[in-house]
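Researcher: Here's a chain I'd like modeled. Treat it as a single chain, no partners, no ligands.
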Amino acid sequence: MLTVKYGKPSEVVEKFDSRVEPRDDISKMLEVKMDGCKYHTTYDTEKGSIQLSIDHGGIMTSSYVPLSYFDNINGKIIREKAIDDL
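Model: Modeled as a single isolated chain. Structure tokens:
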């Protein structure tokens, strides 16, 4: 649905740290739980970026799919204030 709304993603990452790339979804999710995989897709818009990823809270916890929004307008204001503090 994000691709339909925002078009082609600006970045897609599916990177496994293991020597052998997992072949099925169960093996891929095990790599996520073991912190051996990075999954995220980023969409850039005029107002900022949207990132969909797969993450985990630890080996004994469930994995989850966060949808993060990065606001360019407020981010710019915060950066300008931080520069003034330097």
